[in-house]
Amino acid sequence: MRIARFSHQGNVSFGVVQGDPAQPETLVVHAIAGHPFEPPQPTGVNHPLSQVRLLTPMLPNKIVAVGRNYAEHAKEMGNEVPETPLTFFKPSTSVVGPSENIAYPPFSSELSHEAELAVVIGRMCREVPADRAHEVILGYTCANDVTARDAQRAEGQWARAKGFDTACPLGPWIETDVDPSDLAITCTVNGEVRQSGRTSQMIRPIGELISFITEAMTLLPGDVVLTGTPAGVGPLNVGDEVAVGIEGIGTLANKVIKRG
Ligand code: MG
Q1: 148: helix, coil or strand?
Q2: Model pLDDT, residue 51
Q3: Distance 211 CA to ligand 1 centre (A)
Q4: Which pLDDT value is given to residue 12?
Q5: pLDDT at 99
Q6: CATH number of the domain located at residue range(s) 2-54 in this protein
Q7: pLDDT exceeds 90 at position 242
Q8: CA–CA dist 130, 124 (Å, integer)
Q9: Ligand 1 centre from 97 Cα, in Å?
Q10: What percent of the chain has a predicted confidence (pLDDT) above 90?
């Protein structure tokens, strides 16, 4: 099931998307009542997907991100693979949806894309064993862990470098029925492939990451865990269109603009 969040004539709701993504004209969104953490209750209101505006599929309370979880990416940055997972937060205010813009922050001149598989949490949880992580996961979506690389290097903590407004595009929807263990993940910029990896290359798989994070903190329904980026990160410039694609989930495209 694909769960989207959308706006139609000013009304915002969640919905279930049906149809073939390879044939966009077949896609229809069926609005559901309330939130998607319970079995969806269709309202009977349907729209062609082309008639709605897709929003970020979730407004998380927090986003917990994992760094250096693909060996080739750690290597390209000149870093060792950390002995324990490296985690950081991106704030809720950094989230934007599909078709929204990434606004180049004024304090940086080295913006970079990081294509990542995002895990959306479905229920409140703490101290989740790795082999039970699937019980707390609602589904998966695409993320771009947009990073001001110069600020990341210059500043001891990454709050500004990875937490500026628009630094966390999410979407296009949450896929609840995909096995995330070996999916192709790509990033293109203006149609040129920059990153191409597989989720099976993660150093620590999703269950271990959820276990590690929830050993420390409670995750809430809608919280998002970013699972690291494969090799090939590179620059984003004003005017670029960056697209993160994950097999079996979809494609998240955003344009880079100058902050107004
Ligand atoms: Mg990242």
Answers
A1: strand
A2: 97
A3: 19
A4: 96
A5: 83
A6: 2.30.30.370
A7: yes
A8: 16
A9: 17
A10: 95
**Does 113 or 80 have the greater pLDDT score?**
113
Reference 202, options 134, 83, 135, 116; nearest CA is 116
pTM, full prediction:
0.97
Ligand 1 centre distance from Cα of residue 89 (Å): 11
Give the model confidence (pLDDT) of 11-40 as tens digits: 999 999 999 988 999 999 999 999 999 999
The label of the residue with tokens 């990341």 reads: 152
CA of 130 from ligand 1 middle (Å) equals 21
| CA of residue 117 to ligand 1 center, whole Å | 10
**Look-up: residue for tokens 């995750």?**
219
User: How far, in Å, from the CA of 75 to the mean position of ligand 1?
Assistant: 14
Burial of 83 (0-12, 13-18, 19+ CB in 10 A): exposed
Task: For residue 103, report the distance from its CA to the centre of ligand 1, in Å.
Answer: 18
CATH number of 63-258: 3.90.850.10
Instruction: Give start-end residues of each CATH 3.90.850.10 domain in the chain.
Output: 63-258
pLDDT exceeding 70 applies to what percent of the chain? 100
Average pLDDT over residues 70-76: 91
Distance 128 CA to ligand 1 centre (A): 23
Give the model's confidence band at 145: pLDDT under 50 very low, under 70 low, under 90 confident, else very high: very high
Q: Cβ neighbours of residue 168 under 8 Å, at least 6 residues apart? A: 63, 90, 94, 95, 96, 143, 144, 145, 146
Ligand 1 centre to CA of 82 (Å) is 14
CA of 256 relative to ligand 1 center, distance in Å: 18
Contact 236, 144 (CB under 8 A): no
Distance between Cα 236 and ligand 1 center (Å): 15
